[in-house]
Structures are given as C-alpha cells and as structure tokens.
Amino acid sequence: MRPPSPPRTATALLRLLLPQAELEFVLGDLQERYVERSADGVAKAQMWYWMQALRTGGAFMTTRPPTPKRKTRMTQQNFWNALRDDLRYAFRSLRRAPGFALIAILTLAIGIGANTAIFSVVNAVVLQRLPFEEPDRLMRAYLLMPPGGPGEPRMDMFWSFPKYRTMRESQDIFEDLATFRQGSFTLTTLDDAERVAGETVGSGYFDVLRIRPHMGRGFVPEEDFPGANPVAVLSHGLWQRRRDSDPDILGQTIRLNGVAYTIVGVTPPGFRGLSGSAEFFLPTSAYPESNHNNPGAHNQHVIARLMPGVSVAQAKQAMTTIGRRVHETYPSSRGEWSAHARTLEEVRVEPAIRTSILLLFGAVGFVLLIACVNLANLLLGRAAAREREVAIRLSVGADRGRVVRQLLTESLVLAGVGGAAGLAVAVPTVGFLRGIAPQASGYFSEDISGLTRMGMESIGIDATALIFAMVITLITGVVFGLVPALHASRPNLTTALKEGGAGGGTAGRSLSFGTREGLVVAEFALAFVLLVGSGLMIKSFGQLQNTNMGFDPDNVLTVGLSLPRAQYDRETGHQFLRSLHEQIAALPGVESVGYNICTPLGSGCNGTGLARRDQPAGDPGSSAGVEIHFVTPDYFHALRIPLLRGRGFTEQDHAESRGVVVVTEAAAQEIWPDDDPVGKEVRVGQGDGGFREVVGIVGDVRYNAVDESPFRAAYIPVYQSTRRGGFHVIRASVDPTSLVPSVRQLVRSMDPALPLFDIKTMEERVGTATSNTRFSALLLAMYSSVALILAAIGIYGVLSYAVAQRTHEIGLRMALGAERGRILRLVVGRALAMALVGLALGVFAAWGLTRVFITILYEVQPNDVPTFAVVTGGLAVLALVASYLPARRASRVDPMIALRRE
Amino acid sequence: MPKTLGDFETLILLALVRLKDQAYGATIHREIETRTHRSIAIGAVYTGLARLQRSGHVTASIGEPTPERGGRRKKYYRLEPGGAEALSHALQAHERMREGIEEDLDVLVAKESSDR
Predict the structure, then answer these.
(1) Given this model, what pLDDT does residue A163 score?
(2) What is the CA radius of gyration of chain A?
(3) CA nearest A60 in B: which residue?
(4) Are the C-beta atoms of residues A850 and A780 closer than 8 Å to each other?
(5) Helix axes A463-488, A351-395, angle to 10 degrees
(6) Closest residue to A59, CB basis, from B29, B44, B68
(7) Contacts of B8 in chain A (CB under 8 A)
(8) Neighbour-count burial of A316, counting CB atoms closer than 10 A to its CB (0-12 exposed, 13-18 middle, 19+ buried)
C-alpha cells in the first residue's frame, strides 16, 4: 500500500515559509509523523498536518534563523535569504501596526475587489469581441429614407430585394454580402407544436460570416430565388435538442409553418445567427415571388464583408454613390433615397449604452484613483512615523539599497495581501451582479437584438481588470512606500534623529503634512464628482419610473400568436381572431381583450408613410412617417389608451365598410398643425391603397422606449387589413399571469398546432425596457458607495495620524488650560476645512463633467441643483463623522502622559 | 559557566539520549509527545535544536533518505559532551530540588483533588 500523502497546499505553504536549508528535513519529519498519525484516521491526520504547517511556518517566520550569516556580496543564495528576512520583517512590522495594516488592506480590498467585479460584468455584457473571423471587416448596409420633412433626419430602412440587387450589382467594395431577416416559425411534429426563432438568409450569409457548417452544406445561389426546393439548415442546438444529434439528419425533413423543408446542413455549435437566437436558417426562396419583385417591400437586413484593401471610410463614402444609383433605378415621389454602411461594432451597442459604459469607465478610474490616493496617504503617514527608524538604520551602517529593499518588500507584502482580499471581495460581487444584470442586454440597438449575447451565468472574474487594478495599486504602494527611504538618505540624518522625540512625529510632519492634506482634498473632490454622477442617474431612473407611457401597464397580459398563411387566409384568420376574443373575454377575471400587431415596449412595430388627400403628392412634407398599428376595437380599452376626440373603432368597421383610421395626438398636431384632422381623408402606406377617413384622435403611446417621446402613429382596424398574427392584450381584474393556462387551453382547443409565444405581463415589458437605466444607476451607485467608504477611510486615517503625531502638542495645550471642546473643534474643524476645499473643487469639476450625461439622462438636467446640494451635504456629514473619532481621542489625551513621553 | 538549559531544551536533550543514533526531527517529536502527553509544534523542536546547536550542545549530520518520508533525507542530531554535561547539570538541579518533597507533594495533590 502506498503511504498516504499529506495535504499539498499545506506542503506548498511550508515550502514558501521555510528556509531552503531546512526545508527537506522538516518536510521529511512532518511526513513521517503524518503517516504514523493517519493510522488513526486520515482526516484527523490532515488537520494535524495543517496545524503543524501553520505553527511551524509561524515559528520560522517570527524567530531569528538558527545560523545568521551576513556576506557583503549578493550571491543567488544570499538574495533569497535576504528576501526571506525582509518578508519576515515586513510581516512583523505590519503586525506591530495593526490599525495601519487593516485600513490599508481594506482600501486595497475594496479598490481592487469592487472595481474588478464591476468591470468584469461591464466587459462581459458590452465589450466582448464579436465572435466572427475579422469582425472589424464586417459591415451592415442600410437604405436611408428621404427626410420626413425639412430638417428631419433620414432614417435607416430595410432593403427590398430589387433595391438590394441593384446595390449588389453596382458595388465594388464588398467581397461578399447577403440578406438576412429574423422571424419566428411554428415547428410542428406529430404530437407537438413549438414556436422557434430562425433566420431567412441569402446564400452568401455563412460565407460572409466565415461560418463553416458542422455537417452538410450552407445555401447555394439557386436557393435565393422562389421555385427552388424547400431546404433548411439547423442550428447545432436544435439538432441536438429535437433530433437527438442524429448523425443521419441530412436529407430528413422539418415542418415549419406547415411546410416541409429538407435539412441540408447543421451549423457549428454556438452559432445562432446575427440575431443571436436563430434555431434554423432558411434560404430566401422561402419568400413569395411578390416579395422578391416589389421594390417597396422593405424587409431585409444586409450584412457584408469588406474586400481586402478597402477601408471602412472608403466603403462608407462609396455607399453614398451606390445609394444614388439605387434611387435612380427606383425613383420615389417622397424624396431622395440614399444608402450607407456601418461596421458591426458601431451598430452593436446603442449610443446611450455606449455613453453609460464610458461613464462607468470614468467611474472605474475615479474609484481606483481614490483607492490609490488613500494608499498613498496611509503610506505617507507611515513614512513620517518611520523616518526615524530608517535614519537609525542608516546611521549604524546599513546599506542604503538594503533599507530600500526592505521597505519595498513591505509594500509588496501589503499589496499582495490586499490583492488576495480584493479577490475575496470580487468573487461574491460578480455573483451578485450576475443576478441583477439585465438579461436582455442586446448587442444591436435595432430589432435584431442579442448578437451572441453572453449568458450572464458564464461571466467570471476578468483577469485583465484584476491585474490592472493590482498593478496600479502596486505601483502606488511602491512609490509611496519608498518615500521614507529616499527621504532619509538626505545627508542631515542628525535632524531626523534629533527631532523624532515623541512617537517619531515632528520630522514627518515637515515632510508630508501638506501633501497628505492635499490628497484628502483630492479624494473629496473625486468622491463628489462620482456621487453627483450617480445621483443624477438615480434621479433619472426615478423620472423614468414615473413617466406616463400613454397606457396603463398594470394587470395586463400580452400573448403572441401567429396564424400561418398556409392554414389561415384573411377570412378564416379574422374569424379565428373574433372567436378567440369572444372566448377570452368570457373567461373569469378578464375585463377586456384587444389585438395589435405589436405591443408597446416590444419590438417589431412597423412604420409607413401617411399622406393627406388635400395636399398634392410630391410636395415636400405631404407624406409623413408614422408608426402603423392594426388593432381590434377593444384594443384601446384593454390598454386604457384615452380617446381624445371623435370615435374609436367598432365592429362595424370591417372589410366591406368605409376605410377608417385613428391617429394619435402627436400625429394630429404635426400633420395638421392648424386644422382638425377628424373627418379629413388620408392615404396610409400599408393600408389597402385607398383613402381612409380620420375618425378619431387617441393619446400618444410610447411604443419604442420609455425614455423616447412618442412618435406620431396611426391605427387601422385589423379587420380592414390582411393582418392576423400578433399580440393579444388582456386586461384582467386578477393576477394576469393566472390567466395563462386557460388562454393556452382555449387556443389549443381551437387549433392544437398553434403555440403561444412571448407571453409577458405588460409590467415585465416595462421592467425590461428600463433595465438598462436601472443597471447603470445601480452600478454607479455601487461605485459611489465604494468611493464614499474610501473617502471616509481616507479622512479618518489622516486625522488619526495627525492626532497621534500631535499628542504632545495637544497635551501641552490642555496642560495650559485648553478645554476639551476646543480640542474637539480644532480637529473636526481641520477635517471640515479639508472637506470644504475638496467639495469646492468637486463642484467645479462636476459642473463641467456632468455634461457627458446629457444623452443618457431622462428629464434631469446635468447641473441639477438638488442633486448637487444633497451630495454636498452628505459629504460634509461624512467629514464630520469620520473626524469625530480621532477628535474624541484627541480631546481625551491625558496631558501628563502626553508630556511625559518627551 | 554556560547558560542553564530551558525546560524544553532539557526535554530535547533527554530525547536525544533515549534515541541514541536514531535521533532526528520526527523521532524526537514523537518521543517527547508520547512521553509527556503534550501536543507540540514540530517547529518548536527545530527552534530548540537550533538554539542547542548554537550553544554547541548538539551537532547535526545529514542521513539517508527513506521512502516513508517521501524519499527525503534525515538530519540526525547528536549529543556532544558539552551537551551531556549541561543535561546532567540540569537533571542534578532537578534532583536536588525534588529531594524530600515527595510526601508533601502527594499531600498537596490529594488535597487539590479532594477540593474539587
């Protein structure tokens, strides 16, 4: 039998702590004893071994080595011995100053730990590199709509197939390009129906992204056009999940929206398309002929890879020319269309999110700075106290290099312990943030969201951030740790020796008192800026919460349901809708039920143009961009959208009756600036082409985002359109989620092949829509709490030292009759003076810096006076509290003891 | 006059006498633990031995490696004449202090235990 081996970690610890010369024998002895003891139980023996390791290590660390030999020349052996001596001395001297060591390690732990954790999350959520080959060569191409009116910006638009083909033929900047569009399909098997997300893509799609199939092939150019055999490529995940990783999958079929597709390939693991959620891919032959030939059917995204040698700037320039070419081929009465391209990196993150990330970076820097300032402060304080010790050592003949090395080692030990403590802080913090980070952190600001979204559960500590924070603090530690050594090497050793009577004090004061006070002032200024920043964000978040979104989100359930064209035409689809709503309305707890093709704060709302009949087409401004909604009459009731003028829709507004439209307040004011729209006639882009009468005006609804003011919109009765798939909005008098099973049951009883999708309460949608602001506000709040703690530690540390160093002076004052209160005021007043100077600087800096917040603040001015006032007050109170303890200690100085120490 | 031995140093020297030529860290540690019924940090044994080496009571020599200690070598310790003399002095001192107190001590111990 092999003898049991002792715990490895303990052995490693011993290797680290013990002198090389003794190591072998000690380890041997310990192991021998361990083997004997493990006869009584291995666990007990291991415990014993650990205890022995710790005690033995301690014994060697704190006692003089058995054979002290000093040589003048530094041999290799000598270097390690010296290091060991230094380490031992460093540990002992830190143990002698537990207050200093504790505060320094705490500062490092918070500075390194919190920073690393928060940065790790930011990095993982937003900064992760795109997982494609040469992602910086990938671009998205866009059509640009004509401006909606004079001075209005051009808006990005999807491509139609004809316009895409024109662009493709007239470009010479892209190596390859492809259309893509995400959508969701109903996947049916014999006994089951499931809603799955997929993408319909051009044949070049996989090549542009340089994705090679795991099995089979991608698509070929013939499959771009209608008439080709229906084929599909599965994602690796779907292949595993639904087909048990069947190796003979190629050639089998899959039923999507009632159509059978032959499987020709499987993508590599992890690839879910540019939408980040695709389970399968179809070629564009899946679109009907009409879609391929209608230049006005704008519904395709375009991804392209730059040709080698073409720069991003060149490509952007070339797109303008290409856009003109597209416009010439397909001229429009609405104005001049154009085109442009942006790198994948540019479109990946919303500008507002980009700004908040920049802010968080700023915050990282500030907190790190504060931590370093704190450390510098502590070390300077210690330097003052140790100057005498250094002077003595030098005067009795110590080598200067040796002294410097010793102090350096001490700083390194401090940084090492602090770093370990930082890691101990970082790990649980990351775990905490992981739980609260917004799940739907999209990488694209548009409707294709979630490009290769990182699962939050896979976020760990970011090594770069950790190393960066540690190196910065290390440098601070080393620089300021060396001050006493360098300072004491000045020729006037005698001064240092003579002056350092009481606790080694006054000499230090001449060295660093001004510097240290300056550092505390800086700390207050930094903390002020951070706090104002987070105060603004929190206030902004509060405003966001109180925003009137134009509808009442409480107790509303939204359920997606799509009716496949293969099974439902316009007639049967609308019948299905009516019958479903009748039955849902009859459910207990349901107040009303409505339908729209999209939900507020959901994605996929559509836009089109609206033209007044009384203005000739072609006039600038005769056609205005509007959001377009197709709704059932009860939709307005279900969301409690107020009717402002005229009437809403009724059951009488059906396919055979006169075409009607309801516009929103914003549309009414902007399209009929000095006229009443009710009774007027308009043509709506996605209507049936005829004129419709405006019958009413309803309140504005924020369909896009909580912090975006509502855009003009038009509502058309769904029964006057061909629409039938979309969202059912159910207002309940009970908990809306309790309705889900019965609604599901209802739909299944009508058609078992229809799955519900995207089931969410309206409150959940609001929560998701505000999650980014909430998350940034929370992160900034955390940063500023860290800053606050560090600032408090800083001012406390400085004043404690000041009091300790001035014990003699204070004792003298008291002996001469100064009152306790006077001493208290002296110390606290000193703290307040530092704080006030810092605050003044902070106000000045924050006033200028908060301007960067403008884009992400919602209904809060960057120079919000109440925020500034609260922060100022808060920091002043902090200064008071942090100075009170040292002040009290000062006021209790016993004059006799203080004087006797001389 | 050499420095008098500490209590723990005396214990180590006694262990060396007992162990003859088999005295190294592990055996010394075991000998003291089993005979005194005390749990001792092995580090204390080393620091004690180091002090005894400095005062010349003890010398060390490197021995052979054995498998039960992971193939590591032993460091054997030998009692030098000076050490033996110091130990003898210490024991004599003990002996003289002990002389004639047995009965009194027994009474004290008995009284102590009956008090409880």
Answers:
(1) 92
(2) 36
(3) B43
(4) no
(5) 30
(6) B44
(7) none
(8) middle
Minimal-distance CA residue of chain B relative to A52: B41
For residue A496, pLDDT beyond 60: no
CA A321, CA A399: separation in Å to the nearest integer?
A: 74
Q: Which of B47, B54, B69 has the CB atom closest to A63's CB atom?
A: B47
Strands A259-266 and A338-343: unpaired
Q: Region A536-558: what's the mean pLDDT? A: 85
Least confident of A370-379, A481-490, A596-605, A892-901: A481-490
Distance spanning both ends of chain A, measured CA to CA = 69
Give the pLDDT confidence of A196-243 residue by residue, as tens digits. 888 999 999 999 988 889 899 999 999 998 888 999 999 888 888 888
Contacting B with CB below 8 Å, chain A residues are 3, 5, 22, 24-33, 35-36, 51-52, 55-60, 63, 65-67
Contact B25 A36 (CB under 8 A): no
Residues in contact with A549: Cβ distance below 8 Å, sequence separation at least 6, in sequence order: A600, A601, A701, A702, A706, A766
Task: Give, in order, the Cα–Cα distances in Å from A442 to each of A280, A350, A790.
Answer: 20, 9, 34
Closest approach of A59 to chain B, Cα-based (Å): 6
The whole-model pTM stands at 0.56
The ipTM of this complex is 0.84
Tell me whether strands A660-664 and A691-698 are parallel, antiparallel or unpaired: parallel
Q: Measure the CA–CA gap between A645 and A666, rounded to whole angstroms.
A: 13
Residues of A in contact with B25 (CB under 8 A): 25-26, 28-29
Q: Tell me the mean pLDDT in the region A654-679.
A: 89
The pLDDT, as a whole number, for residue A501 is: 41
Kindly determine whether residue A33 and residue B53, on different chains, have CB atoms separated by under 8 Å.
Answer: no
Mapping DSSP to helix (H, G, I), strand (E, B) and coil, where does residue A204 land? coil
Single-letter residue type at A457: E
**A421-463 pLDDT per residue, tens:** 888 888 887 777 766 655 433 333 333 333 333 334 445 666 7
- Looking at the complex, report in whole angstroms how far the Cα of residue A66 sits from the nearest Cα belonging to chain B: 5
